[in-house]
């Protein structure tokens, strides 16, 4: 399993960025939100999203990562330089915690869900999950847990019950303003 950190310390593509983190505790979201505003990149990152090429990292883009309390997933909402949602990326995770400096981290269980801005849903990296099991990086319980969590989230998405997606845009607006005020 790979441990991933909210501040993305090894993000070589990004030359300069600003970051803000805040804890939210309301009826819509309980947990931590980390916003990284990407000022300058070495090169843009384009991915295939539902059969079309989509830019997810470029100058002026922002990534908002949400760590909902008591959940086994992390949501990253990606925004373009026009403050429009590009996609949501959900990582299924086994463990979560904080570094000694207070930075949230999670142990990625390989299986991910991508939701495009037009709400096309894709379950991805099933082959990575199967390979991790085959190579004994994870055990059968981890494998089963990843699918159980993914299926629960997919059901919530199909039934329009995963409200964190819509609320992510509001959190993005709040944190963007606070980050701007820090100048």
- What's the alpha carbon Rg, rounded to whole Å? 16 Å
> Termini distance?
37 Å
Number of domains as seen in the coordinates: 1
Q: Any idea what the shape is?
A: globular
Question: In this structure, how is the largest beta sheet organized?
Answer: 8 strands, antiparallel
Count of helical stretches: 3
Using DSSP, what is the number of strands? 10
Q: How much helical structure, as a percent, in the residues?
A: 25-40%
Global structural class? alpha+beta
> Segments where pLDDT lies below 50 for 5+ residues?
none
CATH architecture: Beta Barrel
What are its keywords?
183 residues; alpha+beta; FomD barrel-like fold; eight-stranded antiparallel β-sheet; two-stranded antiparallel sheet; 3 helices; globular
Write the layout of secondary structure elements.
Blueprint: E1 2-5, E2 14-25, E3 30-41, E4 45-49, E5 52-57, E6 62-68, E7 73-79, E8 85-98, E9 104-116, E10 121-124, H1 126-134, H2 140-158, H3 164-181
Antiparallel strand pairs: 1-9, 2-3, 3-6, 4-5, 6-7, 7-8, 8-9, 9-10
Could you please describe the fold and organization of this structure?
This protein has 183 residues and is α+β, with helices and mostly antiparallel strands. The chain has a single domain, classed as FomD-like (FomD barrel-like fold), CATH 2.40.380. Helices cover 25% and strands 46% of the residues. It is built from three helices and ten strands. The strands form two sheets. Strands 1, 2, 3, 6, 7, 8, 9 and 10 form an eight-stranded antiparallel sheet that branches. A two-stranded antiparallel sheet has the order 4-5. The model has no long low-confidence stretch (mean pLDDT 94).
């Amino acid at each position: 399993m790979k441990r991933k950190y909210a501040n993305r310390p090894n993000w070589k593509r990004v030359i300069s960025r600003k970051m803000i983190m805040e804890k939210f505790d309301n009826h819509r979201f309980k947990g931590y939100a980390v916003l990284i505003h990407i000022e300058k990149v070495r090169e843009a990152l384009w991915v295939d999203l539902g059969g079309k090429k989509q830019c997810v990292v470029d100058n002026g883009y922002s990534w908002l990562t949400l760590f909902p309390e008591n959940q086994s997933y992390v949501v990253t909402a990606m925004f373009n330089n026009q403050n429009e949602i590009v996609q949501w990326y959900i990582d299924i995770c086994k463990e979560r915690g904080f570094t000694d400096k207070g930075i949230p981290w999670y142990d990625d269980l390989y299986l991910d869900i991508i939701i495009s801005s037009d709400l096309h849903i894709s379950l991805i990296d099933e082959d990575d999950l199967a390979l991790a099991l085959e190579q004994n990086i994870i055990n059968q319980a981890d494998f089963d847990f990843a699918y159980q969590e993914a299926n629960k989230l997919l059901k919530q998405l199909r039934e329009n019950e995963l409200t964190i997606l819509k609320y992510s845009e509001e959190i993005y607006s709040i944190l963007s303003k606070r980050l701007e005020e820090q100048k």
